[in-house]
Structure formats: structure tokens, C-alpha cells
Amino acid sequence: METLQTDALAFSEFMTGLTPSQDARVSSAAPARVPCEGCGARRLCQAAQLCRGGDDRPVSLPVCARKVKAGEAVYRAGDPLRNLYTSRAGTSKSIRLYRDGRQQITGFQLGGEFLGMDAIATGRHQTEAIALEDMVVCVLPYREIEALADAYTDVRRGMERMLSQEIVREAGLLMLMGNLSAEERVAAFLVDLSDRYAERGYSALAFTLRMSREEIGSHLGMKLETVSRMFSRLQQRGLIALHGKDVRILDLPALRLV
Amino acid sequence: METLQTDALAFSEFMTGLTPSQDARVSSAAPARVPCEGCGARRLCQAAQLCRGGDDRPVSLPVCARKVKAGEAVYRAGDPLRNLYTSRAGTSKSIRLYRDGRQQITGFQLGGEFLGMDAIATGRHQTEAIALEDMVVCVLPYREIEALADAYTDVRRGMERMLSQEIVREAGLLMLMGNLSAEERVAAFLVDLSDRYAERGYSALAFTLRMSREEIGSHLGMKLETVSRMFSRLQQRGLIALHGKDVRILDLPALRLV
DNA sequence: CGCACGTTTGAGCACCATCAACTATAGTGG
DNA sequence: CCACTATAGTTGATGGTGCTCAAACGTGCG
């Protein structure tokens, strides 16, 4: 997997599942239909079971790919729920806005992970998703997902499981915010990223943070200076080594116990 | 509604929808089938749309009522998901346990509110629900819910909306934990309770806290002494008046702005 | 009544936020 | 290629918020 990271073109192709000629059709302006079959991330895609037509499911979800540049929004708070999304490549953040301008990052989404489920309750997006780097996202029309879910039990179960997983994930964050010290939170954040990268086939011990210290702080409920200090402290303890945004985890078991 | 609170028997009957003779059949040991039709809380029941048989839905969910004494568990962490629950009467807390004994209260459930959705992802309950006072809960067999959801679109939509609402609710809590001061959190907690009591027909300005200061603290991410101090401060400011667990909100608009 | 428990209030301290200075890095244009 | 700038990150000094420890005060119950 690491070799792919060193080969930018092959890596891009692997993640997007698009050959250069297909790639030309995929733009912000004109999303193109692309088959799940060609998607390199399919094995790890949370939405894959919704996309593919199973033995007993002749119809598969028509998936459009869309490019989103770093800093652009996948969707905005208040937007009506038209689509759900999966990241084919790239990382995004989900921001929840508050009345007085305060905001909180409720989560980061890596490649293969699902976005937008907060909108299902009200029909409007409660958060907004901003790309932290250039992304390719799969656009999953919500109406079609609903239709599929109406027709096929396993799709329905999949949706429910993903919603419930999100509840469990947020409950874990609540625990973190309510009980853990700043150092413990940062350690838990790194362990979580490590686990998720490992799940997607990347190195669990060396990765690049796609988000700033301030964004990490907003997610964990602390200030950017504190994040920086805790990184330094973990480094002094010999648990991690970091140069800028590049993290190497030197002692993962110990980091889990912080 | 307040008159009902003064008449204990009528109130109990109203909330449980059980006449005394029915009531005798309802015990922890032997849950009895009770129809949603007789339930006084039905209009406010989050699960009502799952229970009742609509025009196009001949089959309705067989609902059993169960009594749970204060301090007893509705379900425990690790229990396999067999049922979802609605509180017919009484308040519960949802606790999430942590490896080292630390724990966090992820929420309180009032009468009419749903319990147990955290189990759908894994098939086992991630939290445990403990009654804060004597409760009557509706036991909704998960398999039957699934079957109903497979058969009827509106049931499926209802389930998804409830799951998504839970995500939005927890995201709000995350915001609270990440950004608000102790005083702001306590104020927000009271406002939330006020809104929910109002929704269920009770007074928005006078109610009794069913949980201890420590439980409030565990929910809001602070210590019980701090909760007490913040209550005192809000009282000094003239926003609330409290005697023990009885709260009167003197200036709700101001409390919202804290 | 006495005991247990929940709650309130106080004093001192630790942790994290704030303010501020400095460094590192990347991007821009001469 | 190098200055120049802007942005991100690190580190230090200081203060405030909330935690810890502790004592006193109710309130309910056996």
C-alpha cells in the first residue's frame, strides 16, 4: 500500500477507480456516472452494499462521481437532503455551526467513509462537509437509496447499521469529551486514525494528518496550542514522532493506554 | 396537564394507559400484552407510528408493557438486541461504560421517548438503561419491528428518522461539551428539559429533576460540585428558583441566551 | 433519634485557555 | 534563485475555570 502512495498516478487511479479518460469527464460542473465495479475503494466502501446489484438484486444504485477541491463543500448546512456521499479519495471534515458563530467539527471522513447521514431526520443537512484536500466523492441520490431500501432488505439493514454506527461513534466522542484529559484525547484521536487507516489498508503506524492543529482542537474540544503541546508531550514520552503533519507511531500499545 | 399531576391515580392511568385491573397483569416477571389504543401517551409516543396498524397496514406491533423499578435496568450493556423500548411512564438514564470503570450518561429518556437504538449497529446494547424512578416501558420486539419495517415503507422511514434524530441530538451534545462553559451547559440542560416537558404537555417552567447532581454532571461532563455551583449561580442571577430537585424557570428567554 | 445520603459551600490547586513571541513552511513574484 | 509574505505550528508566561479535598447542612428513612 505504501508503494502506491509513492506512485501518485497509480494511487490516484486506484482510489478513484477512474482511468485518465474517464477522469476527464468527472468535474464539479458535470458529474459523470461511474460504475462501482471499477472502483478500487469498493472493497472498503461503506456504501458498497448499497451500490452493487446482488444476485437477488438486479438494479444497482446509479453512482455519480464528483470532484471536490480542497476547501470546497460537499454539502452545506441547511441544504435539502438530495444525496448521501462516500469519499472515493480524500478526507473531509463535518462542521456543525452554532448560533453565535461558534462551530464544532463533529468528525473527519477518510476514503471509503460515508457522509451526510445527519440530514435524514429533518430532510436538511445539519452539518456541512468541507474537503480538507482534493476529493472524489460518490454521489448517492437519496431517493434511489430509499427506493432500493424499500425493495431490498439487506440495503435497509445496511442503512440502519450505518446510522446506528454513527450513534455509537458519537457516543464514544462524548465519552472522550466528558472524561478524558487533553493528552488522553489527542492520544485517542491518533489511535482512532491509526485504526481507521489500518482498516483501509494503509499503514497504521505512519500517516499524514490532513487537518490542521486548529481543526483537531475543534474536534476534540480544546485549543490549537493545547493540541500542539500534547503532541510535543507524546513525542517527549517516545510514543510518537512527528514532523509537521507526518506522524509516526512508535508505541501503539502504549498510546492506547494513555 | 398540571391537574393530572396532582391526581396520582388518574395521572398513572393516563401515562400507562392501563386500568387498575390491567395494571395487575403488568409486572417485571410476566409482561402483558397491551394495546397501543389504550395508551394515554400514544399521541406523544415516538414509537406510535410503528405500533399502530394504519389503513394500509393490517398488522400492528404486539406491544408488551413491563414495569421497571427505580434503579433497575431496562437493558444492560452487552445484552443482545432483542427489544427496543419506549417509556410509557418514568425517566431513565443511558449509561455508557468504559474500560477503566469510568462511565458517562449519554442521555435521559422521558415518558414517550425511545430507548435502545444504540444496539442496532452491533446487535448488542452498547449502553445500559437504568430507571431513575419506577417506570412502565413498552417492549417492542426488534424482530417484529424489522418485519414491519420490511413490509411498510412508513415504518422504515420512521426508524431511519429516529436513528438520525439521535445522531443530531448527540451532535448537539458534542457541541455543548466542546464549546460551552459549565454555566452554559447547565442552562442548556435545563432549557432542553423544559422543551421536552413542554412537548409532552407538562409545564415548561416548573418540573422536578429525576436525576441527581452527580448524574447531571456525568451527562454534561463536569463534577457534581460544579453542577451545584452553577445552579446556585443561575438562581442568584434570578433565572431559576430551585428547592432540592424542584425547578422553576423564572426567565426562560434569558436562560436560552446564557 | 441517629444514620446515610445528597447537596451546598469554601479553600487551594491543576489544567487548560489566553496572550504573545518566535520558528518553520509554503507560496508568490521579482 | 532569493527575498517577501502569509499561514501554520511551537513554546513560554500568566490567569481563570473547574477539579479536589473538606466541612457543614439539610432531608429522608430505619
Q: Can you tell me about this structure?
A:
The structure is a homodimer of 258-residue chains. With 258 residues, the first copy, chain A, is α+β, with helices and mostly antiparallel strands. The first copy, chain A, folds into two domains: 168 residues, Jelly Rolls; 75 residues, Winged helix-like DNA-binding domain superfamily/Winged helix DNA-binding domain (Arc Repressor Mutant, subunit A), CATH 1.10.10.10. Chain A is built from ten helices and twelve strands. In chain A, the strands form three sheets. Chain A has a five-stranded antiparallel β-sheet. Chain A has a four-stranded antiparallel β-sheet with strand order 3-8-5-6. A three-stranded antiparallel β-sheet of chain A has the order 10-12-11. In chain A, strand 11 and strand 12 form a beta hairpin. The longest helix of chain A is centred in the middle third of the chain and has 27 residues. Chain A is globular and about 55 Å long. The relative contact order of chain A is 0.12. At the A-B interface, helix 6 of A face helix 6 of B. Chain A binds a DNA duplex (30 and 30 nucleotides) through helix 9.
